[in-house]
């Protein structure tokens, strides 16, 4: 029964992932339309700033999510430490935790810098776009970020559920 429930949960997660991927494709198409519009109205150096911001947005958000996910896994492993855990493993987990914590702080700094750059890009676009077009751009940035977060969360849930299912199937003769 538990295996059946896990398989059902996985099917639902896979279906949800397909919906999110479809939304991501729509968002990417919308992004291409925005890109063409910005290219048409902005100066080349302003357009380059816009493109660098959009490219870095995905990279920085993905980096932050990846580091947070890895840090959470290390923290979970650290919570499972008990008297039988050897000293080398404890030391290794502690070092990984410190490293990932520093890396995540660095990624947060990158995100803050990216947020400042977004304000600069918004200021540039405000000179050329109508209020509605500017709101459309801001919504695009929000949706793109939300979809990246949602995709990463679904991938983590799927991975965890697949690992649970595999462990459970191996435990049953």
Features:
actin filament binding; mainly alpha; ASD2_dom; SHRM1 protein; coiled coil; flat; 0% strand; 173 residues; Shroom_fam
Net shape: flat
Structural class based on helices, strands and sheet pairing: mainly alpha
Biggest β-sheet description: none
What is the tally of helical segments?
4
Spell out the helices and strands N to C: HHHH
Helix content: over 70%
End-to-end separation in angstroms reads 15 Å
Kindly describe this structure:
It is built from 4 helices and no strands. By secondary structure, it is mostly helical. The chain has one domain. Helix content is 92%, strand content 0%.
Explain briefly what this protein structure is.
This protein has helices at 2-41, 44-79, 87-128, 131-171. The chain is mainly alpha-helical and 173 residues long.
SSE diagram, text form:
Blueprint: H1 2-41, H2 44-79, H3 87-128, H4 131-171
Helix pairs in contact: 1-4, 2-3, 2-4
